[in-house]
Amino acid sequence: MAHALLDEHPRLRSRFRREVNERDETVSRDGEFGKTWTSWFEEFFCDICGLLAYGPAYYCAVVRRLSRYGSFEFERGEDGDPHPPDALRVDVIRELAEREFPNLADCIRDDAIAYDRHLDALETEKPPDYDTYDDDDLVRFLLDEVPDVIDHDLDALISDIEDGVDPADRPERQHRLEANREWVPSYPPQNGG
Fold first, then answer.
1. Do the beta carbons of residue 72 and residue 88 sit within 8 Å?
2. CA-CA distances (angstroms) from residue 96 to 18, 153, 171?
3. What residues contact 88, with CB distance under 8 A and at least 6 apart?
4. Cα separation of 193 and 189, whole Å?
5. DSSP letter string, 128-167
6. How many of the other CB atoms lie within 10 Å of CB of 35?
7. What is the pTM of this model?
8. 119-168 pLDDT per residue, tens
9. 83: which strand partners?
10. Which of 10, 118, 137, 192 has the largest CB neighbor count within 10 A?
């Protein structure tokens, strides 16, 4: 669904391309940096949509899934386009999660620690050019610009999670609350003992 949603935001994609082109001139002589990041944008957009729609459950599900693979690899999707390394995807959604729901840090802490250990174990497999592609300016663009174009009710979802609301009591968010109940061990919070 997020791939289709991105089609509704051609200006955002164009602005991102301009950012990439500015960075590409200083980073890459052959334009590979720019081509790669331009291709990655869609996957990052989808990850951000997932996190804004599902909150901690999305983070936990993605991190657990991506812990099974070579997290630093530069892969190609079924369409042949490059996909961002899993480690970079997790960095982006972790930073967004910490910013958007800081009071639920405990919900994602165990998965974050497990993923960090996973990355530590793979450190020797990190490609030499990985750090070149781990670009703070482009990540900042993703974190600052993408959430502004996505219509979401993350604040209401987070409030329901923090309050331990029964998913059946919020039909408009029931599925997403149930996903959080499934993926986040600390949901629902213990109310007063």
1. no
2. 22, 15, 26
3. 133, 134, 139
4. 10
5. TTHHHH--HHHHHHHHHHHHHHS---HHHHHHHHHTT--G
6. 15
7. 0.90
8. 999 989 899 889 989 999 999 999 999 999 999 999 999 999 999 999 99
9. 75
10. 118
Cα 24 to Cα 125: distance, rounded to the nearest angstrom? 25
Q: Are 135 and 24 in contact (CB under 8 A)?
A: no
134: exposed, middle or buried (C-beta count within 10 Å: 0-12, 13-18, 19+)? middle
Question: Which residue, among 181, 150, 153, has the nearest Cα to 166 in the 3D structure?
Answer: 181
Measured CA distances, 46 to 58, 156, 159 (Å): 11, 21, 23
Which H or E run contains 75? strand 75-76
Cβ-based neighbour number of residue 146 at 10 Å: 23
Which residue has 């059946």 as its token pair?
Answer: 168
8 A C-beta contact, residue 43 and residue 90: no
C-alpha atoms less than 13 angstroms from C-alpha of 27 in its C-beta half-sphere: 23
